[in-house]
Structure formats: structure tokens, C-alpha cells
Design goal:
There is one protein chain. The chain contains eight helices and no strands. It has about 170 residues and is mainly alpha-helical. It has one domain. The radius of gyration is 17 Å and the shape is globular. The chain starts with a helix and ends with a helix.
Length: about 170
């Protein structure tokens, strides 16, 4: 089923120059939108400095989780195992398909921002879905990689916020 869903989405790669351009753009450059939103929120409201700190810690923990999962649970990427429509830039790494670092970090930032600004967090969450779809369409990841990454990215900031040392640290920021 995972392979079928992958093929159903990936089949659209190469069918439209506009779609290919948008998916490659979202896959590679969406991270700058997340950064820009956090910066704008912090500039607009002084009390959002906690948001920046919380988001930074959440990203660090999420990245560490991705790193460890890639070390201990190797799954070949779709373009290694199957004939796929692969969009440039072509990957140079053949590391584990799960989790999708792009998707996990996108959802981690979205979930972090959502706790402070619901509208911005919701819009970033929608962009995170597009990041996940773009990773499938460009031939980098399976749908299960994206779903698992979305779960990790949404749960990690919540768990980080529950940690007492993090709460103490965030209370010191004014």
C-alpha cells in the first residue's frame, strides 16, 4: 500500500513544469518561510522571544531524534529501490528514508508556533503538509515516512514543553 500511494503521488512528477517547480521550491526553500515567520512574530511582540527559544529547543531535540532514527532504522529511499520520477536537485545521499528531516522539522516549527500564535501556526502547518507531499512527489520519501515524520514533528514540541528544565529556562526569558 505504501508503494502504491507513493506511485500515485510521484506519477505527477514531470507532468507539469509549474508543478515540478513549485514542489522543488517548497521542498528546498520552505525552511526560509518558517524562519521568517518566527522572526516577524518576535519583532512584532516582545513576549514572543519565548517562542523563539522554545522553537529553537524543539528544533534541536527534533533534529537529534531524526539523526538517531536514521542511524538505527535504515530504510532505503524510493529512488534506490524502485524506478521513480526523481526531480532535481538529485540527491547525493542514500541515507535512510525514514524520517524525512525536512518534514519533521517543518512540523516541529509549526507545532511550536501554534502554541503562541494559532493563525501563524495553522498556516505553517498547511505549508508543512505541502513540504511532506513535495518530498513524495520529488521521489525522496514514501508516504509512511511523511506520516511518521509529521507525528514526530508535532509531538516533540509538546513533549519538550512538558520538561521542567525547559519550562524553567523559558520563564527566565522576558
Amino acid at each position: 500500500m505504501n508503494k502504491r500511494m507513493f506511485k500515485a503521488i510521484n506519477q505527477f512528477a514531470g507532468t507539469s513544469k509549474l508543478l515540478d517547480f513549485l514542489m522543488v521550491l517548497i521542498s528546498g526553500k520552505a525552511r526560509y518561510v518558517y524562519l521568517l515567520v518566527v522572526i516577524i512574530l518576535c519583532i512584532r511582540r516582545h513576549d514572543y522571544r519565548k517562542l523563539a527559544a522554545y522553537t529553537g529547543v524543539s528544533i534541536g531535540v527534533t533534529y537529534s531524534i531524526c539523526f538517531l532514527l536514521k542511524l538505527f532504522s535504515f530504510q532505503p529511499r524510493p529512488y534506490v529501490k524502485h524506478s521513480v520520477h526523481l526531480l532535481p536537485p538529485f540527491p547525493s545521499k542514500k541515507d535512510s528514508s525514514f524520517p524525512s528531516k525536512h518534514t519533521t522539522l517543518a512540523f516541529a516549527v509549526s507545532a511550536s508556533v501554534f502554541g503562541y500564535h494559532r493563525l501563524a501556526g495553522s498556516l505553517l502547518w498547511l505549508l508543512s503538509i505541502l513540504v511532506g507531499v513535495s518530498r513524495i512527489l520529488t521521489g525522496q520519501h514514501y508516504p509512511s515516512d511523511i506520516v511518521g515524520s509529521a507525528i514526530i514533528g508535532n509531538v516533540t514540541p509538546y513533549l519538550v514543553k512538558q520538561l521542567k528544565p525547559i519550562n524553567r529556562f523559558l520563564r527566565t526569558i522576558d
